[in-house]
TrEMBL record:
Compartments, as annotated in UniProt: Cell membrane
Topology class, membrane: Peripheral membrane protein
Database matches in SMART domains: AAA (SM00382)
Main location: membrane
The protein's name in its UniProt record: ABC transporter ATP-binding protein
UniProtKB keywords: ATP-binding, Cell membrane, Membrane, Nucleotide-binding, Transport
Sequence ranges assigned to domain ABC transporter in this UniProt record: 5-239
PROSITE patterns found in the cross-reference section: ABC_TRANSPORTER_1, ABC_TRANSPORTER_2
Organism: Nitrincola tapanii
Gene Ontology molecular-function annotations: ATP binding; ATP hydrolysis activity; nitrate transmembrane transporter activity
Any single GO CC term annotated in Swiss-Prot or TrEMBL for this entry: plasma membrane
Sequence similarity: Belongs to the ABC transporter superfamily.
Length: 275
């Protein structure tokens, strides 16, 4: 099987005022073209750190990450990032926010009519053709996030990296955007890596769920295959035995990690009292 992303013995250590802080250690993971993967775990387990390494926003202090068999040494147009904060420029329209990215990637080899066509196609892909002239303050939070996704997709990336993109949205908007994302991924064939705290979101959207151990020095604890056929219907899956089995497996992993954190905290409290 072709490997689009290869992560080999990757680790990340940050230098702090208190000394070295090991955020990640011994991470090994391969991603195939067209695959959707979720990273899940408790806060501080290094999910976003791992995503940033794949994006090339930070470089590993140990190991290596490869994209298309080439070492990831920085950001690249084949890897587009969607953050929880939409990060739109408030003085630009929806169209212009996307056009800026299109021009950066394709501006040297394409003329303005082609760049405009790409921008309009990206807006249409997320159902926002009617909002091209609106500014960020004139649209809802869900629409802003769709513009952010359109901006990422306009660069025609091989890999869509998403850091809790729906975390700040209400439940109904979140569900609608999850369905929209599944449709877009099916249409574009892009590979996706998503950081999430939402178990149902992870099971619904993923082919595999990567479950991280608690930090510091976090690593991959388990990887769960999600054998659910696509396209997926959230209503139909509610009573699906495989869906519920996957959901329970992730919850059990997270509950076990939380229990260990609580046990460690109680031991430290007892030691402090006895000391």
């Amino acid at each position: 099987m072709k490997k689009l992303i290869q992560i080999e013995n990757a680790g990340q250590t940050f230098q702090t005022q208190k000394g070295p802080f090991v955020a990640l250690r011994d991470v090994n993971l391969n991603l195939a073209p067209g695959e959707s993967i979720s990273l899940i775990g408790h806060s501080g387990c290094g999910k976003s750190t791992l995503l940033n390494l794949i994006a090339g926003l930070t470089l590993p202090t140990q190991g290596v990450l490869l994209c298309n068999d080439r070492e990831i040494a920085g950001p690249g147009p084949e890897r587009a990032v969607v953050f929880q904060n939409h990060s739109l420029l408030p003085w630009l329209t929806c169209f212009d926010n996307i056009y800026l990215a299109v021009e950066k990637v394709f501006g040297r080899r394409e003329k303005k009519p082609q760049l405009r066509e790409r921008t309009l196609a990206a807006l249409d892909l997320v159902g926002l053709s009617h909002a091209e002239t609106k500014y960020p303050h004139e649209i809802s939070g869900g629409m802003k996030q769709r513009v952010g996704i359109a901006r990422a997709l306009s660069m025609e990336p091989q890999i869509l990296l998403m850091d809790e993109p729906f975390g700040a949205l209400d439940a109904l908007t979140r569900a609608n955007l999850q369905d929209e994302l599944m449709r877009i991924l099916a249409a574009t064939g892009a590979t996706m890596v998503m950081v999430t705290h939402d178990v149902d979101e992870a099971v619904l959207l993923s082919d595999r769920i990567v479950m991280m151990t608690n930090g510091p020095a976090a690593t991959i604890g388990e990887i769960l295959e999600v054998p659910l056929a696509r396209p997926r219907d959230r209503i139909a899956l509610a009573d699906d035995p495989q869906y519920n089995h996957c959901r329970q497996a992730v919850l059990s992993f997270l509950y076990e990690k939380q229990r260990k954190v609580e046990d460690l905290s109680q031991r430290r409290q007892r030691q402090a009292v006895q000391g």
